[in-house]
């Protein structure tokens, strides 16, 4: 309102003696236009400056597809919210920072965005090591942070950090239940020797016996392994093998295919939903099982998709298209609905908190209870004090298969 | 100790040996250790993926395309590396020049195939056989056989042919070689081309079995470099021995102990060999300097 008044006063401005009225008029008009184009038009309809949402992720390099997918889904959700009037009377704007594969860049971007008062929510940085390096910055600056790309570790001790991804513990618990139902007697783990691999190893060492399974141990892999056949050889008599959620998982599947492995191959996380798995492993991926939050895209029957998920995915398809595996023809949307959940949940929390004060918003986020039909991911969001968006009931089991129409997944009964 | 670990080790070792041989071919007349050598291997994998997997044009077209593109890449690499080396006059220019070439090629491959984790075409030879209860694919047998044949052929070429004598003369003393009428510059360009073609063929043959990503070139360079130093830089027999030592040792230790121990043992051995045999197992003191 203040700026609008000052604009009007500029339009009445005429105090110089001897200046021709029409010249004055042109000057005044020019000034008015200039002011309108700068300060005055900086206001949104509601009169509030825009709320900026930051995303930090790999937008370049080998993992760019992850960061760009997150960015696309967040932009689609922002567009939807803006079309509905924004949040708290303000429009939303996305600010993107590329971390590449450099943790230093991720921390630098986190510091920049956490210190910017116009940024109210930061999504990312993805990858556990990057996030672990950056999360302290968000806590110190009381910046609401949402994480759709970190599976291991706890968020319960964080004041402002929330996870919108399936936690490793939930995935492994679901998978162990499946193995028990199939009557498997033992299981081995082939995973990268990183934080997530060690976390899965610790969970299996603790929980496998409870599911009636003997844990055969952890074959820790390296990023420079060009084949996993040696690791597969160690577990050739195992009744089940957990494979990695990363590219290493596809190496394991390929090695299992080459070795003619007949046991159960099950994901220790939801990474196998990515079509890069199918591209890398080829037909060896047929029949593999993986736990994941709602991911109905490859199940084909859109009528069965949850309404919020379908609306979001179809908006992503319309704006950005789909990824198509060049070798296999498998498809996936160019978006990550779990990242859109961050913005969706934040908007709901701001509404409940009556503003963007980070303490009030964090408290409101803890109390959210959003139905699965309404969210972009198709999962219920109920963070609670654990700061986990999704619970055990949101984790499902999917199985990849292929027919004459191409690759698809089927959801396995609980 | 499992047979599978040995099979894997011999296979990857033969690939490392071809990279080590390529490094030696460039090193002999130029005294430049080409850190961009692994990118030629990626070129072979890229061609295999593009021509065989996506284009469905088969192995013959893939081999011809690899030969053509690797020749072009070899000529380009020589210009990108040797020109700055000659113009700068710095004794360290080759480090920056080869690393820059590696990063440029890596960026090109990553930009072109950023969504592809593994450039994996269908194998040239489908199927395999069982050896003492372990599965061995024909592609592995074929790759090892071709690698051995190439190394034996290059060893013969180096010792028995005019080209080989010219390379050896150029590597002993380029100035004198020029005075004797040997076209040293042409030899250098040819060396880059031959080295690039060999590495690219290694990539093409290995891609159906290994997981070769578009950004994996430097890993193969490091492994090939280690193999070359262990075996003795400049010696085809040394490249073979070094490649097999690196491949088998890494695979066996990784299987028997753990993945981290594999690298520890390989690089520990490298340090030990440099201490006892500064010129490598098969290298001559002159060739190591």
Automatic annotation (TrEMBL), chain B:
Query: One GO molecular function term?
Result: transmembrane transporter activity
What is this entry's stated membrane topology?
Answer: Multi-pass membrane protein
Its annotated compartments are:
Cell membrane
- Give the transmembrane region(s): 6-27, 34-52, 58-76, 92-113, 136-158, 187-213, 225-249, 261-280
InterPro entries, per this entry? ABC_transp_permease, BCAA_transport_permease
A Gene Ontology biological process annotation?
A: amino acid transport
Q: What's any one GO cellular component for it?
A: plasma membrane
Give the record's keywords alphabetically.
Amino-acid transport, Cell membrane, Membrane, Transmembrane, Transmembrane helix, Transport
Primary localization: membrane
Family membership: Belongs to the binding-protein-dependent transport system permease family. LivHM subfamily.
According to UniProt, the name of this protein is Branched-chain amino acid transport system permease protein
């Amino acid at each position: 309102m203040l700026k609008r008044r000052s604009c009007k006063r500029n339009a009445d401005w005429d105090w110089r003696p001897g200046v021709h009225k029409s010249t004055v008029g042109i000057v005044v008009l020019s000034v008015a236009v200039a002011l309108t184009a700068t300060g005055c038009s900086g206001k949104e309809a509601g009169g509030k400056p825009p709320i900026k949402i930051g995303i930090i992720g790999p937008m370049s390099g080998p993992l760019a597809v992850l960061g760009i997918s997150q960015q696309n889904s967040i932009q689609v959700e922002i567009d939807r919210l803006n079309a509905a009037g924004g949040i708290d009377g303000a429009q939303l704007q996305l600010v993107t920072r590329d971390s590449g594969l450099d943790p230093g860049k991720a921390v630098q971007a986190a510091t920049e965005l956490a210190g910017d008062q116009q940024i109210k929510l930061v999504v990312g940085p993805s990858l556990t090591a990057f996030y672990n390096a950056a999360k302290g910055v968000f806590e110190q600056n009381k910046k609401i942070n949402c994480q759709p790309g970190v599976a291991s570790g706890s968020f319960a001790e964080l004041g402002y950090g929330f996870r919108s991804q399936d936690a490793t513990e939930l995935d492994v618990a679901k998978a162990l239940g499946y193995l028990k139902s199939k009557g498997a007697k033992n299981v081995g783990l082939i995973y990268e020797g990183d934080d997530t691999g060690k976390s899965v190893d610790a969970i299996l060492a603790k929980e496998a016996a409870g599911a009636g399974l003997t844990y055969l141990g952890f074959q820790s892999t390296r990023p420079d392994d060009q084949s996993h056949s040696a690791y597969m050889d160690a577990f050739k008599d195992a009744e089940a093998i957990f494979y990695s959620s990363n590219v290493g998982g596809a190496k394991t599947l390929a090695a299992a295919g080459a070795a003619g492995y007949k046991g159960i191959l099950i994901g220790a996380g939801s990474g196998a939903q990515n079509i890069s798995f199918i591209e890398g492993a080829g037909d060896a991926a047929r029949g593999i099982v993986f736990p994941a939050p709602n991911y109905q895209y490859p199940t084909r029957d859109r009528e069965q998709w949850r309404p919020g998920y379908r609306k979001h995915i179809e908006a992503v398809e319309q704006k950005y298209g789909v990824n198509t595996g060049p070798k296999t023809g498998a498809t996936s949307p160019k978006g990550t609905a779990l990242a859109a959940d961050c913005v969706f949940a934040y908007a709901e929390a701001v509404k409940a908190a009556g503003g963007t004060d980070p303490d009030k918003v964090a408290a409101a986020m803890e109390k959210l209870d959003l139905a699965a039909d309404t969210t972009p991911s198709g999962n219920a969001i109920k963070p609670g004090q654990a700061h986990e968006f999704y619970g055990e009931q949101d984790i499902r089991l999917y199985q990849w298969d292929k027919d004459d129409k191409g690759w698809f997944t089927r959801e396995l009964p609980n | 100790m499992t047979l599978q670990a040995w099979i894997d080790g011999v296979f990857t070792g033969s690939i490392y040996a071809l990279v080590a041989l390529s490094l030696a071919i460039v090193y002999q007349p130029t005294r430049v250790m080409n850190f961009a050598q692994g990118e030629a291997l990626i070129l072979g994998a890229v061609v295999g993926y593009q021509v065989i997997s996506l284009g469905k044009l088969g192995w013959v077209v893939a081999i011809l395309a690899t030969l053509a593109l690797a020749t072009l890449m070899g000529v380009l690499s020589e210009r990108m590396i040797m020109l700055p080396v000659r113009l700068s006059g710095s004794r360290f220019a080759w480090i920056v020049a080869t690393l820059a070439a590696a990063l440029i090629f890596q960026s090109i491959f990553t930009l072109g195939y950023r969504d592809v984790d593994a450039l994996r075409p269908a194998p040239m030879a489908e199927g395999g056989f069982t050896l003492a209860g372990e599965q061995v694919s024909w592609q592995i047998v074929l790759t090892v056989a071709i690698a051995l044949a190439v190394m034996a052929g290059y060893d013969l070429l180096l010792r028995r042919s005019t080209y080989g004598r010219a390379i050896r003369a150029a590597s002993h003393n380029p100035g004198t070689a020029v005075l004797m009428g040997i076209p040293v510059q042409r030899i250098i360009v040819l060396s880059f081309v031959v080295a690039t073609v060999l590495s690219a063929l290694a990539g093409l043959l290995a891609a159906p079995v290994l997981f070769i990503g578009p950004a994996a070139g430097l890993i193969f360079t490091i492994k090939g470099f280690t193999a070359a130093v262990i075996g003795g830089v400049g010696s085809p027999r040394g490249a073979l021995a070094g490649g097999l030592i690196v491949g088998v040792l890494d695979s066996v230790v990784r299987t028997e102990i753990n993945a981290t121990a594999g690298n520890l043992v390989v690089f520990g051995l490298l340090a030990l060999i440099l201490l006892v045999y500064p010129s490598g197992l098969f290298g001559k003191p002159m060739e190591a300097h």
